[in-house]
């Protein structure tokens, strides 16, 4: 891709390895920037390349530490805008705060909308992200949003495994559409877990609608956070006679007791992508495999720069 003079790709400190992989796919040198803290903890960023009139992309997942990575993204955007970049795209592989997308009780914020507003205010001309927790989040932005799905990356891996006697299990009702798409792509049966809430923090998998006895089970979701729902579902399907149990997710958040829960659950394999870098603690998860979304993001960046269709990436065009 011989566009070094037209396009610049910068990476924040949240996921440097993903940025390097994207630049390698595009055969581009990564943009130079100085990122350092002031003694009082404030972030300082200086762009060290000429970006005047160029198409600039900032790759920064707003994963933990969420507020620090978000602030770094905002400063990057402002810095590029003030340096006269022609267009600035915020590439946010994992979009933190996406779950706070509605008022489900009184006197609470819609933080997802707030974050969308401040990203626009900071100088982003468009946003590129993967598997937002809720599709309607795209409407929170007053700038274009390119929403990618990691499903093709996961499906390709599962097809290569040639899984027989496959049942796709949705760990809850809200994940039914996702499970149905995987069932259609992989040619498996479909089952769903009915669960009940014990209290504000605990949910118990109660019943399976569908059969899993003697079947290989695949459970897929947009993220694994504290892993309570997925681990509960895994234990239930094992009790009902499932053979191999595989968990797949785009974003490996792995918050709180997730690592302990997953290692105690009967998973034969746990698959995530590299939208979020893995901590040393997370690397202790048994049978964990990480798939890369760098090629998909790189292709999307190239298409945005060349004013080509993004949706065609998922239609085989």
TrEMBL record:
Chemical reaction(s) catalysed: D-ribose 5-phosphate + ATP = 5-phospho-alpha-D-ribose 1-diphosphate + AMP + H(+)
Membrane-crossing residue ranges in chain numbering: none
E.C. numbers: 2.7.6.1
Intracellular or extracellular location(s): Cytoplasm
Cofactor binding mode and count: Binds 2 Mg(2+) ions per subunit.
Keyword terms, alphabetized: ATP-binding, Cytoplasm, Kinase, Magnesium, Metal-binding, Nucleotide biosynthesis, Nucleotide-binding, Transferase
Record-linked InterPro entries: PRib_PP_synth_CS, Pribosyltran_N, PRTase-like, PRTase_dom, Rib-P_diPkinase, Rib-P_diPkinase_bac
Origin superkingdom: Bacteria
Catalytic residues as annotated in Swiss-Prot or TrEMBL: 195
A cellular-component GO term for this protein: cytoplasm
The name this protein goes by in its record: Ribose-phosphate pyrophosphokinase
Lineage: Bacteria, Pseudomonadati, Planctomycetota, Phycisphaerae, Sedimentisphaerales
Name of encoding gene: prs
